## 1
Amino acid sequence: MAHAPIIEMHGINKQFGQVHANDSVDFTLQPSEIHAIVGENGAGKSTLMKILYGLYQPDAGEILVNGTRVDIPSPRRAMRLGLGMVQQHFTLIPVFTALQNIVLAKEPRKFGTLIDYQQAEKRIAELAAQLGFDVPLNTPVESLPIGAQQHTEILKVLYHGADILIMDEPTAVLAPQEIEGLFNCMRSLKDEGKSLIIITHKLDEVMAIADTVTVMRRGQTVNSRPITDTDPAMLAEMILGEPVIPTSVQREQTDQTTPMLSMEGITLTKNSDTVRKRGWKNVLSNRDPGKRHLNEINLEVFPGEIVGIAGVEGNGQTELVEVLTGLQHIDSGTLTLNGERVAHIPADRHRHGISLSDRIDDNFIIGHHKKSRYSRKGILQRKSIQRSALNALDKYQIRVGNITHPIKTLSGGNQQKVVVARELEATPEVIIAAHPTRGLDIHAAEFVHTRLIYARNRGKAVLLVSSELDELLHLSDRIAVMYDGKIVGVVKPTETNKQELGTLMLGLN
């Protein structure tokens, strides 16, 4: 006997200005099911799930939970209905401990007023052990590696009573070694009767973990079927609406002997004075102010070369990028940059890449607003700015309704493409690209790959930080592997494999 659906969404419509994000979308989730939603950037996947979680309100349509029609005006109402969402950009408070983040707004009390952290810690530790998580609950979230932060988010939604978990790009910030652990967790939750919805671009992962897959394209549902009735090639064709024809870019060889970027003996130590100035007194006792984020880094990047940086998240990659882009100052060593124009594609586009509340066209000129083509005597030249923005939108295939709308109205993938377009169109000599295709669909990721190879072929120096080993092996001329703040190996893609890279990443060599 077939089970009744736990979630039904019928005829969901949602419009942002001229963009029809959801157009009469239907979606059904069965009990104890892992259901993947796939589609290009701007297909409407995240919008649909944000409607289900109460972050957006639909313009039309209805939602049924366990057969009963419901209105979900807020996440609080969604949580009461047993829904929880782990978003692509975590919603944790950095200076709070993992435990404080998990119990926030649902703190257990003793004597009526005092927070009973001991009771909460015992309950959450049992839940973490059941899922195979190793989360130091009394450590500030900002000190935790990305994988542990994601585990904290999952524990948080489960602690608040979620029976249905929505996960937006759950593997986007994880190293390969952490993905299988997440999948094991998802399978355990399914076995316990939980239902999971994952939004993802990674079709191989869909095939590995999902029971059912729904394909969206341009705001509509185009297909929904059991995973056993499809394959990656069929899914890719449904996503794009046409057969997938891989493009190739010829890699040109260069014989440059002078590095464009040189690092010699670069050291960066955790600075407790900075912590004090920022007022995080409660964090100091949990930190090791003498720990080296970067420990004697030696690396060169030559013109016409892509050097990849591999490593499990939290082993110094972030600090390396921050040093190279001026966000942190080194303690010792020599950093040489031969070239004035540096492009920075940041790992966290919301913090370092865009201004969410500002217009789309204005985001195209961040960092370049003083150029004569955009500003004269301190007055922005609107026509010139809009002309450049429209050219970039067309060239980089970015889907928007109106360029005067805030960039937060765009999908995450289209926001990322704005950052990539802005940085690469500035004709940089050195490109620091940190996870440039995180959250991008097949077409968009391939387009970014092509642009990076074009830049390389024009003699630009590219430093590529990525947690995607396939991406590093495909794009890089050399791959440097980081572990515990050190470079523990430099290999050529043609002379290595994922297993060897994984060994280096775990410090087992």
## 2
Amino acid sequence: MSHWPLSKSDIVRPAYRSLAQGIAGAISAGSLRPGQRLPTHRELAFQMDVSVQTVSRAYEELIRAGLVTGEVGRGTFVQIRTHEYDIMPWHTATTRRAATDLAMMTPVELPEMAEAWSAALHRIADRMPGHMLHALSPEQTEGRYADMAATWLARCGLVVSRRHVLVTNGVTPATFTALAAVTNPGDVIATDPFTSHMLLPAAQHLHLGLRAIAGDDRGMIPEALSDAVRESSAPIKAVFLLPAGGGPTARFMDRDRREALAHAADAAGLRIMECDPLGPLPARRPPPVASFVPGSAFYFTSMTKCLSAGLRLGFLVVPDDMVELTVNRHQSVSWMATPIVAEIAADWLETGTADTILAAHRIELSARNRTAQRILPRSSGGLHGLHRWLPLPAGTDEAEFVAGLLDHDIALAPGSSFAVDTRDPAIRISLTRTGRGNLESSLKTIASFLPS
């Protein structure tokens, strides 16, 4: 059996075993997706015309087999394979140190950044309000830094009121907060076939399924999203998007596709979750997807990838009808943003330091991306992106390719770290954690591994 739901005719004696085998077959065939909630014991007993004890025994067999997980008070869920979702893109680089780390995606370490930290720390030492040094109330950080957040968001193309903005410790807690506010266990999130490495473990923790939606060179296809919502056996609650070069494939969505996708999602009753880790770093960017349907969209960005890896500060824009619930979820995840980090961010904006770093960062990234494009012409990425995406030739063993480069002291992020389902082999190449000269020689080594 490989279908779901099962029918009474599928059950033969012993009933518990055939029920367990039927559910296992549906999981193997993909009819039951990772994170999907199974019926309660009583519901399934009624549907199959068996006893509650029979269902309980079947579920116990599936739990022992590692196919489902049961949680008191929440239900029984199809297990998400941890070997797929728990490994971070830089896993190999951290377990076996490489001289050149092209796996971790961080800003380039520029001299301007070190100078900015030193100057800001000296300035705020004398002006940081005493009550902020001892702040324990989320309202204190939200009140003091809401205007700063609005200023940054305007650079990203969004004009929002203070009420709709949460200050967070980066994109990661913002992502988890938005997911927790919108979904229930067993719900499904639509996303690209290759998506953020943060989404995968977050979905696992919240018992959510992920549905890969087809795309083209311009990004996710609106019609494919609409079709998926109609065809899905489990409720698709939201669509998770990375339209501005921050996703693993470094794809940049044009304005028309953003607008069409926004309206398709809105018409399907989906919440939009727009993740924009690069913020205003890419120049001449189209408006965010969230700007077209603000009533149903979450938008989250941060300063970290743009200005400095240590500046762990982000902003979550929330739809009007979700503000109270989202604030509650954020407080349960990370309570509040760290005031001293927010104070440094505000200082950089007030003094023009943020603009200085952004300009220097764009110049450096432009040079690195041009080098990568010259050496690896099949790679894709924006001029101001932190990484490039390189599809590997058909038939290439992705794991062997990555391991071979590691033997040459070059760490890469395998495409499988970002894959929602089985996809063609690829690698993500960070351009930022080494000097330009070493980067160029490393890229040439990667090119030499590609079949001619």
## 3
Amino acid sequence: MQIYAEILTIGDEILYGQIQNTNTHYISQALSEIGVKVRHHTTVGDDEQAILTALKQAHDRADIILMTGGLGPTKDDITKKTLCKFWETDLIIHDEWLRKLEAFFTKRGRPMLESNIQQAAMPRTATLLDNRLGTAPGIWQDFQGKIYVSMPGVPHEMEVLMQEQVLTRLRAHFTLPYIVHKVIHTVAIGESFLAEKINDWEENLPAHIRLAYLPHNYQVRLRLTGIGNDRVQIEGDIAQEVEKVMPLIEKFVFGFDKITLEEAVGQLLMTENKTVSTAESCTGGYVAHSFTKVAGSSKYFKGGLVAYTQEIKTGVLGVETQTIDAHTAVSEQTAKEMAIQVRQKFNTDFGLATTGYAGPEGGTPEQPIGTVWIACASEKGVFAQNHVIPLDRMRHIYFATVLALDLLRKNIVGLE
């Protein structure tokens, strides 16, 4: 039987957009890994009636209700009092936690205020979850056949409680199925084009395996999800489906599961014992930044040059003035020379170059704003691609970087 959960986030600061709600993302992933399916995410402010309404709704539609926030020492932290009202119980001082708090403040030479004492207050019917990283304990309550867990909103405190106590308790309390995910990462193909290529395969997926399309920034993740009681069988079934679909989309696939495009390209370079350098204009060093985000990238990334003006393109990088005069700085010829020159100057196996109009100014009727030329040079020659990315400036830079990394990937594996 499938077990369903709802995540309830409490706090005005989240509704006001003052902090990001990273807790919901973390909890959802953790629950999925143990076979619990999250049905709803709910966020409410520090308002008793709003919290009570959310609790009633969650009680009616979920088996597990996981809450974060509102357990601190200030007056706006009303979660415990509201839970007592919902559970029809009262607050009592938890003696063991009070002693822990006293030791905490004594060790730091700080006075213990009444508000700190109240952090030892717990709903009478609940079980305390030891928060070894903070002063607000977690709360576990079995109420009318539903499990309620309340945790601090501080992310690192919540994460430790989840891993060390909450997930273990949930596994022991429920008979949980296995939920297995397999993610196929594709790049430089639109969602609709990808769906068309794999339509017949998708139509014939087994009933216990579902497919989701997750597009983001010129990349589409294909997530296969299998649910059942035999994990080995599910993993085997998913592996068979991956084997069936790969011949249809292989040239667009750069990796699986949690890998990023820059990590995948880096792994290819290390496997082939190759190096790369970059010459960038419109991307302003973002391609180089993408390489250096990966630990150990010095093994394959030697360096880069931001040739943002014509003076630097010709005087430092070595692009011929005649090339720019004849074809402009944003052209196939200029991009190719940039890639060739940076490869020679840095003595690398690959030279990767970008030049374009990121906007909002610039461009020509032939080369409008959003135009980018990307080139990759190697011992096999130099290849260039032209794209028009009619987006705002920062997204143009990011998308051009993705396309540059993909062009390099294709050159490494022999697709260009």
